[in-house]
Amino acid sequence: MTGCVSLLLAVALALVVCMVGDTSNRGWPAWRVAAAPAHAGSLNVTQLREESLGMFRFGYGHYMRRAFPQDELRPISCRGKDSQGGIALTLIDSLDTLIVMGEQQRLQEAVRWLAANVTFDLDARVHVFELTIRAVGGMLSAHMLIEQDPALVPGYDGSLLRLAVDLTNRFMPAFDTPTGVPLSWVNLRHGQIPGDVRFTCTACAGTLLLEFGVLSRLTGNASYEAKARAAVETIFAMRSARGLLGNTLDCDSGAWVRTDAGVGAGVDSFYEYLLKAYLAFGEPRYLDMFSELYAAAMTNLQLDPSWNGHNWLVDVDMHGGQVLHPYVWSLGAFWPGLQVLAGQVEEGAALHANWTAAWARFGWLPEMFDVGLDHAHPRENGYPLRPELMESTFLLHSATRDPSLLAVGAALHQRLADNNRVACGYASVGDVTTGQLEDTMESFFLSETVKYLFLLFSNASALVDHFVLSTEGHLLAPFPGTSGEVDRETASLLLNHQRHLNASQPGGGAAEARRQQQQQQGQQGREQQAGGVCYWSDSPAQQQTRGREHGQRQAQGQQEERQQEERQQGASGNGGTGAGSSERWQEALAQQVAAKCRFLCQTDTAASEALAQAAQELRSSLPLLPLPPGALPMLRRRRCTTCRQVTAAVWQAQRAKVAAIQQVARSKAAVATAKISLGKEPAMAATGLAVKRQFLCVVEDSTKGSLGCSVFKEIPARQISPRRLKALPQNYLIIQLTEPTPEMAAAAAAALAGGAQQQQQQQQLQQQRQQGCSAAAAGASCAAHGTGAAGHDPAGLYPVTVEMVVLDGRGGGKQQLEALLADFGPLFEPGCTDADSSSSSGGSSSGGQPQAPEPEQQQWQGRRLVVREGEGGGEGRRHRVVYLSDSAESSGGSEQAEEEEDGDPYEDPDELERREQLAAAAATSSSGNGGGEGGGGGSGGTAQAQAGEQAQAQAQAEGEEEEEYAEEGEEEVESGEDEEAPPPSQGQGSDTGSPPPSMVLCYAEGSAAAAQPLDACTPLLNGGQVAGSIAVVRRGGCLFIQKALAAQQAGAVAVVVVNTDDQLMAMGTDEHGSQTDIPAVMLSAADGGALLAALVAPDATSNGNGSSSGSNSGTSSGSSGSGDSSGSPQGSVRLRLFSSREAVAAGVPSDRCAAAAGGGGAQAQQAQQQAQQQQQQLQHQVELLMSPQAQAWLFSRMAAGGKDPNKALAQILGQLQAHFQASTAAEAQGAEAEHAEAAEEAVEQES
Q1: Which of 71, 315, 367, 793 is catalytic?
Q2: Model's pTM, two decimal places?
Q3: Burial class (CB in 10 A: 0-12, 13-18, 19+), 680
């Protein structure tokens, strides 16, 4: 047992050293944020718009010639087929698309043919859900648009509305079930079909609300919406305790047939129509249901990030929450677009990146694929031309105007054009793994897939501010709401829609009378409805009764919510109860809501002007599309309300989940603690040392591939007898903290001293930055302006100039942009310029490339300039970085230092051999890429990959050697003589992997390259393009330091971060104080937008390859590291970063200097806390107490599962460290509260 304890102790101590010294994060899998292979710089958006229009004309034209009036086209055999009774379904589904595409003549021909020929009196079995969203929705959308602009179809008499009423009436027998939930199938002539299936999917029964609600408002017949709403309410009431809905239910009994919950097939559009019904009708009940279900989905369906690095939304059991299978439904690709409509843009963008990665991985989106993007489902592996990813791309671009999304759309479009076009249309994919096509083209390809691509390339972002898009992509104008939400600007919409009411049905006269009655009731009647369905035939007394009932339900619901919130606060376990905790929670929630909804809820003049301008652009792009008056303010107001309510619902649901988890953990801890019987004597460790503190760890699987403590609790430091220890369950581990031995204390003190030295270096660098702030304030002291707002980093106040040169083949143009330097990486010496002025970007005669003098000839104010330059990413991407040496001596000083290092008598011979091997590998890589920094394309990328593999193999061998050393004994570990690992911020931006000559730059220049992904939150996929360039990234998604490290790892020489607004802000590092070897600066949204626009300009100089990425989009995204630069212009935009004296003299506002002072105080406080934690580490050593049987169980468990003991013990020790950090923070908060209370008492006594 002593030997096992010694081994565990040795491993634990080694892990403590690793935890303190290694703070680097393992990179995400390459597929996670794989961008589309098309490059923004090669796009011609106008051409893409015309090509998408041509795609529609080709498919629609062949349908009319080869398949009409049958339902669908068989594009390979060039014939038609009937899928829903033979009603010309593709024609009906494409009516509003004809208006969007500007095909007025074809629209008139279609409407007149339908009015004269189509009938629904057919002995045909049809699907209620499919025909509702395709046929009813198509006819209602076209009817409303034509009513808005009668010139679209002169002489139109309301025939489409009559047909929609006729078809919907034939669906009504489906609702004749005991539960009111409609059957999936009916016969158009006979109604319910004896012996047919009596169950339906959740989405099938719940996705009728929008079309039926529109029909009720256009006809005055409330029964349509009442039937659809009753079905939705029934299903909503069947949700589980987790707030989740199952997949399939019995229409007669109301029991769940399938309890798998998700956002894919069978459930997807149920969520969608609750939100869109609120946006269309303004009914608060729909928003209430959506908010609750959305929050439950985001809380329970997100896959743990330990599953291959990202939180997909997957299928789980609606009751227990267990993941049911490792597959994702492609229908779930609509979810990011839904999140955009609900104001959750950041979450939508993050999830959308996964879907584009899946498309790039498989070439299309298979119906199902595994969460790791390794393979498609063995059966559900086809792609029937679904539109969900195109829809989300369009909606996300509408909200962000991110140009990279145009590249995503271009890749989607090109794939369809190159691989799905056949003789008579566009064919579905039967198997994405083989590319085999099927002879089908469903109607939604023309009504949605092509439409969304056309809208994406048509500057139609404002469309969502004027229409609600159905799940089939049909354009529906919003209606004035009930409950006092009626807008005067939009009240005329209802009258316009009912103008042809007499023509809609035989009882048109009665309907007209009802319209006059409701018009007389006016505003008062609508306000008294207070949240009910739009019951047009109700009397005022009925409306008042319903209003009172709704008020009572609302008051009761609010009371229940308050009680639930009080219970959650009591069970939160976060150390705060009562009014103070509630106020802090409400304040945090208010800040979250304000941050997420600031754009949707803006009502100032600037926002109104921007919306008006967007509407004008929409009219210019889609001249045939009439915009409903008053829809803009109505939809913006409803989306603002949605954003606020949904954000709060998610916040509350996640908070409740945390409280529930904490409650379960407390219960488990109580059970586990009860099994331990401690004696009365103080505990003594096996080493004979007194135990100061003692903890219980119940070892179980915590995350995929590792073990951890499912219960971690401090117990009294009293002795446990060997008999009672042996009686404990095998997975019980006791962690004991004892006084360290003198040898270990000395080693820890040495490590602490090393950390103090590193901290001193960081403080010196910080002082330089504060001096830069003072200089920026024209000599005024930052402290003179007060402390300012805490939390700002002073480094962000260091002014830098970004000089941009666009080489467009016509001589280019130079533009200087203002930027701020990050709180990490090198500084810029103000006023420092190269000795040779011809090195300015764009100033030379060789295409804008610098003419660099020899390094030893360059000096600035007596100090030597060290120059690093080379090629990267191909010809035309020459970079140049000039460092300011710390001394004025020649390069002999560095050589002498190297000679002294080589002559170190304590140098390990094995270490020398290892360095020689790494140097040889680096030389091979350098020779392959032209000597540039970070590698490049072509053969250089291959050499670089080989060098990386050699380095990885060497690192693995070293790890095995270190494990052998650990097994030989504890002495070397305890003595602290092992060489310390390099810090995680060690850069890869230098030529040979060495650090830069100094942390002060004269300037840096090179070609600009947009990172892929643009947020640079994961390893870059276009490393061959970024290497040797100045990487351009976008703010958001992760820490600034992560973006800079990702760019540095790809070989960039500098980073430019584009902000999301026109303000410049400080860019801080992480809690570990990580640094980079390359500089990082921030540009405002306006200047950064100009830079991105220059990168994506269609007339920018290119290498002649054009946009050929669509043909190879099926290749794995993981292999795009070095070859992805072939489709983008080389060196078309060059940047030069420097700090001019003029920029420094211009200064910054005094409040920013105040922020610098506040940030410095916060940093000093953080450093003090870290020093206290390190001092506490000197006071303890870790010992693990287990019985021999428990030790055998633990190691056998690790071996059986292929788990690494180091990782398992690191997980356990990590929880121990987290416990200390939490307790330290709690003590600090307690001391601060006591100090504040004492100060208040002193003030009261003085008064």
Answers
A1: 367
A2: 0.58
A3: exposed
